[in-house]
Design brief:
Layout: H1 3-57
């Protein structure tokens, strides 16, 4: 093989190695974000349920409790 071809192959192998590392790092980041997103979804669902329970347990405004329209 020619010297120029060997140099090009070495450069391509180096670039491929860096790309593999980058892809793995991105995959790890996406995996962590997916876990965090699922944790946040569960927390939001819990908060929504607590808020709904709290709203249901509080005396709500009925039509009789509301001020007349001219207020």
């Amino acid at each position: 093989m020619s010297e120029q071809l060997i140099v090009r192959m070495n450069e391509l192998e180096t670039r491929l190695a860096f790309q593999d590392d980058t892809i793995q790092a991105l995959n790890d980041a996406v995996s962590r974000q997916e876990l965090e997103l699922e944790r946040l979804r569960r927390a939001l669902e819990l908060l929504a349920r607590r808020q709904a329970d709290l709203a249901a347990s509080m005396p709500g405004e009925t039509e009789d409790d509301q001020p007349p329209p001219h207020y």
